[in-house]
Design goal:
alpha+beta, YefM-like fold, 2 domains, 3-stranded mixed sheet, 4 helices, Antitoxin, YefM-like_sf
Length: about 90
């Protein structure tokens, strides 16, 4: 990405969508505003992960979850799950 960021109102983005897709594909980041607030960013996708990379990241997540995830025991109530979630 070349670092350029351009803002468009939602109505203008709708009218120029095809052009904005071309610009995003070329590396520009397009910010879409509605009533002056950012609601979306249009960017080109990054490189796809290989099957091996997805598998490795999945294994890393499972290890992380074992260390940091909530301790879910059989028969936990919704209230207990909520309280457990608040700890993190």
């Amino acid at each position: 990405m070349d670092g350029r960021v351009t803002e468009f109102a939602a109505s203008a983005a709708k009218a120029r969508f095809s052009e904005l897709l071309d610009r995003a594909e070329a590396g520009e980041e397009i910010t879409i505003l509605r009533h002056g607030r950012v609601v979306a960013r249009l960017v080109a996708p990054g490189p796809a992960m290989t099957v091996e990379e997805r598998r490795r990241r999945g294994q890393e997540f499972l290890k992380w979850r074992e260390l940091h995830g909530p301790t879910l025991g059989p028969g936990m109530t919704v209230k207990q799950l909520i309280e457990e979630g608040r700890r993190y």
